[in-house]
Write the structure tokens for this entry.
Amino acid sequence: MAKKLRHVNVAVIGLGMGWAHLKGYAEHPGCTIAAVCDVDKARLGRAAAEFKLDESRCFTTTGALFRAARGLKLDAASVVLPNTFHAPVTIQALRRGLHVLCEKPMAMNAGQARRMIAEATKARRTLGINLSFRFTPQSRALKDIVDAGKLGRVYYAHTRWWRQRGLPGLGGWFGTRRLSGGGPVIDLGVHRMDLAMWLMGGPRPVAVSAAVYDPIGSRLARRQRKTFDVEDLGAAFVRFEGGATLTLEASWAGFMGKNEDMVTEVLGERGGIVQRNVGEGYDFEARVFSEEGGSLVETRIQRRLAPTPSPYGEFVDALLQGRPSLATGEDGLKVQQVLDAIYLSARVGKEVRIK
């Protein structure tokens, strides 16, 4: 267990998606943004201006940042880079004695994820994974209901994130397998899959059967002469130890009625829960289904619940309190094992076992 910190000095590595990390840390009174790192000097300049950082705290390489870590009195780092860099940069940071919040997916494969966990254990540092859908007020409320045993034994879940037209810029790293590891399954599905597994109580996955498709992305890429060698839709059936199962669907593109459709449903012997997005945005509603006196009862959880800490605030809280993050490296590994199995099953055309 890492010791408690009195204050957290954090560096954010990667200022594309990392902008959300910067804003989250800036809002926490127990945290100071002590450094930023990005190859894009324009992004560095914008961050320096907005968060009042002098030039000595802005870096274009991780090597230079980590060499300066002690002088900057860094405690932690957010790793917000293309997926292929998650494991190597996280491991570098851990070896420099830093706590790490790593963006999802944790790594490119489970082997890398295990090495990240081993380095965190060796360094006695906290490793958190930004599995951000755990952190919404509705998700936390549903988790409390499950943990209270109100669903009874959970046996099935369904989760999806569909986009009608949400292909990332063709030719970029998202659509290049060697940089991303995959398409919407590893980009979007990772979030909804983790949420479902978390609400199910974290069962151990044992087998996966899956298929992936790329009819829209590949056609557009050929037309534009851009690289696109990942899926634009994937679907999977996951078996867990104890008999529970999960179906997952994730897409960047498809001929469907709603531009942005997110839903997670969990069924238990005594009740069920559902979380879905309202309209086509990121506002969520949650419902609980149970039985009273032989009749089905539906309870709606208020959409405007008291705010819960963001993934970044929760990570800082964990360091200040000397406890694990809400989404740990072990949680990330479990998700990564399923992701690996999805792509392997799709490639070989049959169910694969998870060891």
User: Anything to note?
Assistant: Residues 117 and 294 are 48 Å apart (CA to CA). The mean pLDDT is 96.
